[in-house]
Amino acid sequence: MPNEVFVIGGGAAGILAACAAAENGHRVTLIEKNERIGRKVMITGKGRCNVTNAAYTVEELLDHIPVNGRFLYSAFACFMPVDTMDLFESLGVPLKVERGNRVFPVSDKAVDIVDALERYRRKSGVVLLHDTAKHILTEDGAVTGVETEHHGVLPADHVILATGGLSYPRTGSTGDGYRMAKELGHTVTDLIPSLVPMTSEDPSCKEMQGLSLRNVQISVREVDTGKTVYSEFGEMLFTHFGVSGPVVLSASSHLYALQPGRYELSIDLKPALSDEQLDARLLRDFEANSNKEFRNALGDLLPRSMIPVFVRKTGVDPFKKVHQITREEREQIQSTLREFTIPLSGFRPIEEAIVTSGGVEVKEVDPKTMGSRLVKGLSFAGEILDVDAYTGGFNLQIAFSTGRLAGLSV
User: Fold this and answer.
1) Could you give the 3-state DSSP secondary structure of residue 327?
2) What is d(CA 249, CA 9) in angstroms, rounded to the nearest whole number?
3) I need a surface site. Which of 57, 140, 213, 348 has the fewest CB within 10 A?
4) What string of DSSP letters covers 4-66?
């Protein structure tokens, strides 16, 4: 006999959960408060939608999930990136694989992914209800219904909570799911931003705001110990508040209790050159500009907006003629090219984070079904769970995998 299933939240996890349950013969209603489903999917990947990561094994996926990765083993075994790719291509969206195994629609348009999810919903027979879920009702430890803002109480045999986190609240991720989970006795761990820009009290960031650095190597170090906690090659951006960009967002997920003075960002501006090659490059540039002042001799080596800041960091007199620069000063210039440091002071607000770290305690959820261990007929999927991953398509894959498993397990 089919169950009356309600899925709360029309994002990536909720849609996959609803469609999987409907394909298994249940009567499924998807409750979404926005006019369109997939609002957060629409803005992922800078509007291109990094739909998944073409990792080939579960272990490869788990390597990119720093928080409670092992909890996701069954979900990934149920629905792998290849399944995600097959699904969207079957829904008429050609995909391509880019650097780092990141998967995007060929069109580079996130709206194509959202439109495909809407086609999938309709094809599966899922009813879409535009409303706001207020409470999940239970009796004797089992789900009995959902109380909504406009449609009142709706009887239910099973409810899947897939309301997302607290990041990007304009997409509908306002933390409602955490409140409902707590009302039912579930523990919600501390909610902190992950994959989020970082702030710096160094005024040079504002001086360089808008400057994007490509093909640099960044490292984040503990100031007291000198220990490197994260290192990655890629692209970053200076802003009025500090630093952002793909490698900075990834770095943020490795840092906890970020306070002024605890961590610093070190940038290798020329990672493709060995020390010998870099020294030779400096000598060539200095020879070509031997009669210029130091501040005017770096145009071929660095972006214009970075040069004043760089010169200050070297400690070399900006008005000194290049042919007067000593060997020790040249070594200091080379050292600054290798380690251009920015002190870090904190994270930007959770509303600016790509994902929320923290959520429903996974010990209270059955990893083989995504079902609650506390309330019969309740399941969870997606960002509401205390799991999060690095950038590169992994977080969307978590949403698809947990959603699919939750729906199939009704």
Assistant:
1) helix
2) 25
3) 140
4) EEEEE--SHHHHHHHHHHHHTT-EEEEEESSSSS-HHHHHGGGGT---EE---SHHHHHTT--
Cα 91 to Cα 118: distance, rounded to the nearest angstrom: 10
Length of the chain: 410
The Cα–Cα gap between 233 and 216 comes to 6
Range 156-180 burial, b when 16+ CB lie within 10 A, else e: bbbbbbbbbbbbbeebbbbbbbbeb
Q: How far apart are CA 112 and CA 205, in angstroms?
A: 36
And the tokens for 92?
Answer: 């008429």
Element (H, E) at 103: strand 102-105
Q: Are 402 and 382 in contact (CB under 8 A)?
A: yes
Query: Of 391, 354, 382, 393, nearest to 96 (Cα)?
Result: 393
String of DSSP letters for 149-181: TTTEEEE-SEEEE----SSSGGGT-SSHHHHHH
Instruction: Name residue 228's beta-bridge partners.
Output: 221
What's the CA gap between 305 and 151, in Å, rounded? 57
In a 10 Å sphere around its CB, with 0-12 CB exposed, 13-18 middle and 19+ buried, how is residue 330 labelled?
middle
- Residue spans of the chain under pLDDT 50: 171
List the domains of the chain with CATH numbers: 4-191+353-408 (3.50.50.60), 197-347 (1.10.8.50)
CA distance 121 to 22: 9
Closest by Cα among 119, 88, 120 to 103? 88
